Amino acid sequence: MTATQESHHELSVTRHIAAPPDKVWDVMTNHIEQWWCPKPWRAEFETLERRVGGASHCTMYGPDGEVHPHPGLVLAWEEGRRFALTDAIVGDLEPAGPFMIGIWEIEAEDGGTRYTATARHWTKDAQAQHMEMGFEQGWGACADQLASLSQK
User: Fold this and answer.
1) CATH number where 39 lies
2) Which of 3, 15, 28, 82 is the most exposed place for a label (fewest CB within 10 A)?
């Protein structure tokens, strides 16, 4: 299911995962490269400092040789609950051309876990661009990959 919230230029994907929150959190954070981008793409996290203000740097590799680096900053890290990243700040607090803030969160629900991934964009145009890039399909595939790994 995808929802939009106009005031934040927000897109989100949510899933109920039939696994306890501690298992989902473990997969989300300790096996992030296995679910982070839709297959056949793959992700490599060179850096993910698990603290507010920490560096984040992920490179995504496509099946046809595409290479997309994603440097950023950790905005929130609440162990066992949520984390948030942005591409608006990179390196040593250098401003970058911001596209979004990503928020990944979980909570216990109905004997399992409610997973929600949210992208908040600075502008309506950036939100529309993200939709055109395949937000629903891409982030939905990632949610399904996370669920599959968590339910093993």
Assistant:
1) 3.30.530.20
2) 3
